[in-house]
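[step 3/7] inverse_fold.run input=structure_tokens len=88
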């Protein structure tokens, strides 16, 4: 009872054909194949990266900054920068 017989597979195939139509099935299969191929190559790339080199920690941002967007950085008025910051 746990296994699917050929009749079950035939019924599933007919239902899929009726739901998606014969025109969309090859497109869907092609798209699924491309997606799986890309996923497989990415997983292989990650595995080769893990085996080839030790993990590298990069710190591009200064302490207190929240990254390249500039969030968390103090803004300095342009007048203070031009005059050297001494307004007196």
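[step 3/7] decode complete -> sequence:
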């Amino acid at each position: 009872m746990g296994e699917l017989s050929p009749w079950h597979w035939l019924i599933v195939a007919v239902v899929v054909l009726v739901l998606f139509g014969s025109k969309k099935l090859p497109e869907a299969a092609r798209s699924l194949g491309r997606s799986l191929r890309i996923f497989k190559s990415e997983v292989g790339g990650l595995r080769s990266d893990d085996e080839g080199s030790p993990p590298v920690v990069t710190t591009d941002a200064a302490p207190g900054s929240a990254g390249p967007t500039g969030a968390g950085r103090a803004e300095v008025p342009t007048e203070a920068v031009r005059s050297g910051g001494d307004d007196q």
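[step 4/7] annotate
The chain has two helices and no strands.
The radius of gyration is 29 Å.
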